[in-house]
Write a structure and sequence with these properties.
CATH topology: Trna Endonuclease, Chain: A, domain 1
Radius of gyration: 15 Å
Shape: globular
Order of helices and strands: HHHHEEEHEE
Strand order of the largest sheet: 1-2-3-4-5
CATH class: Alpha Beta
Number of strands: 5
Strand content: 25-35%
Helix content: 25-40%
Number of helices: 5
Largest sheet: 5 strands, mixed
Length: 152
């Protein structure tokens, strides 16, 4: 699987198309969540079907985590809080992104869980903009169907 992932992460491959990783970097910096969705769907689409772990949301967590780590962002997954574990958090100097993934449910269900569990509470004292991202993954198509974003 590494050969497929690494090919997507190379900045200058000689290909006239922009590197996917630079698009992901730009998407987060510019809060372009539709571009972020498209980039991850392109990345998931490049992974052979046999490599996907059947019905495992954590597979997607790992890909997202690896992407953010390769970009040099502070990122963590399965981050414990007082009321459970949030799926992923990515922190910049001026903003924080809290990710909750759902598989074959809805992005709204993911946002609802962030609120119900108060996953954002530990980050409110940091005086940064906080973005909640609810992401619904469609396992049959192996892609992100919907991203719902809420700024606190």
């Amino acid at each position: 699987m590494n050969q497929y992932l690494l090919g997507e992460y190379i900045f200058d491959s000689g290909n006239p198309q922009p590197a996917l990783i630079s698009d992901i970097y730009d998407a987060l910096r510019e809060n372009d969540f539709e571009l972020l969705k498209d980039c991850f769907n392109a990345l998931f689409g490049a992974i052979p079907q046999d490599y996907f772990l059947e019905n495992r949301e954590k597979f997607y967590h790992a890909i997202v985590f690896l992407t953010f780590k390769l970009l040099g962002y502070f990122a963590s997954v399965e981050t414990p809080t007082g009321r459970g574990r949030l799926d992923a958090v990515v922190s910049f100097k001026d903003k924080i992104f809290i990710f909750e993934f759902k598989r074959d449910e809805s992005a709204q269900a993911a946002i609802d869980q962030i609120h119900e569990k108060g996953y954002y509470l530990p980050y409110q004292s940091e005086k940064k903009d906080i973005y909640l991202l609810g992401i619904n993954l469609i396992s049959e198509r192996k892609e992100i169907e919907d991203v719902l974003v809420e700024r606190l």
